[in-house]
Specification:
alpha+beta, Butyryl-Coa Dehydrogenase, subunit A, domain 1
Amino acid sequence: MHYQPPLADNRFLLLEVLDAPGQLRPACGDERTDPELLGQVLEEAARFVGGVVAPLRATGDAPGCRFEAGRVETPPGFRQAYRSFWQAGWPALSCAPEDGGQGLPWVVEGVLYEWLSAANHGWTMAPGLLHGAYECLRHHGSDALKAQYLPKIASGEWLATMCLTEPHAGSDLGLARTRGTPQADGSVRVSGTKIFISGGEHDLSDNIVHLVLGRLPDAPAGPKGLSLFLVPKLLPDGECNAAHCERIEEKMGLHGSPTCVMRFDEATGWLVGEAHRGLAAMFVMMNAARLHVALQGVGLLDAALQLARGYAAERRQMRVPGPRDASQPADAIAGHPAVRRILETQQAWVDAGRVLAYQTGIELDLARSHPDPTRREAAQQWCSLLTPVLKSAFTEQGFHGASDCLQVFGGHGYVREWGIEQIVRDARVAMIYEGTNEIQAIDLLVRKVLPDGGASLGAVLDRLAGDLDAARDAPLLASVQRLRAATTAVTERARSDPEHAYWVAGDFLRATALVLMGWAWSRVARHGAAAQPRWRLPAEAFGRWILPELSMRLSMLDDRTA
């Protein structure tokens, strides 16, 4: 069974629950937020994802990518599908019209990439960094670089990479040894080795634009000495650059995506942005990439859930007493309470993840273009705090929830025939790349909450509380207050114990995610969805099987603060 984007669900959450057009109109204008236009774009995107990309998931996983003599051949059908993708204009959805884009809100692109990841995670790795590379170059590139590269990155005709990690330096980018030597003509000769480079070499596009972190000769030590270089596979005159793929990794999952070891041997490149300010330029890519990765977790969980629901409706075993869906056979395992609990719990995560990620996508556009500076500041505050939460919480659930969905299949889930084991394998990497989930937790608590004593998080919690109904949402309001109290306690303890916050960062992030999910489900409930089984059942699952974890996480924080 191929993945099919749940268009009705996505449209309901985006256009009705969140009223994305109304929220975005002050920043993006009437034309680009017209509900009918957005609905038509999503409808066409769903058709392309379900009909072109999804059928390649299993067929691309088995053969994987083939490496020979420095060249990479992607699985059958991948190149043709990607050509159709960029020629149809999908990579340019949210790019500026002056760069050949359509200028639509970022959140529309977010929905597209959620679906693409669910349909075929390996294939989607190729275009996944395009928008981040586009934003990086648009904001920090010279006029000459933008003229040469921006239109083809915006269109997707040329793909891009993000070259950070080195064999001896993973998350600690300050240890990078790649060097850039300035030349008289204004170019830079780049030398060094980068690992774990998704799409470092492939046959999907004629050119690949590498964005490489390295050091200039006068660079200070540490992360403040890093610069960013644009190093293309093909130079402007059509000659091959000295950027070589040494091998591709044999991986647990993502077999359809080549993960490359890249060697730059005095490769020709150009400085992007200011010298020694490479991380500032690169983090334009990183933040966009992290929200995409959060949506990968949501999409992959939805893909696993679709498979599990389909199997559970057809698999007949023991009859169970009690009410059941009259459309299903009496002995279908979909009626068993143990199976229902798994399915509705994962649905609760998927739906809440969409609400939170889509709202964060809306805030990205508001932070950039809203005419009111106070609203821009609030939007930036929301994005800064929620991005690490969403990346960590929903990639973790993407993997563990997919594993729970595999459980529905029993022994059949452990063999390749049913496709669920591929999703479990593919989902695992999202907890690692674009900053491990442990780093996300540290980023949230140590770098964003503690420095201002929890004031920024308190402002976000004020927004949540102000959006809740005192009578209907009393338990959620109590949860908000409990998180406030925990934030105060952790902040006070950190003043006397510098190590403390690192111990509890993961629990703090998880508690924050649960409170946010409560707000998301409150938004769904107020739109009359509680009367429909499609929304009522996962809402009940959230209250019964997910939210109680908040007490456990807060208890852990209390233990550490005692």
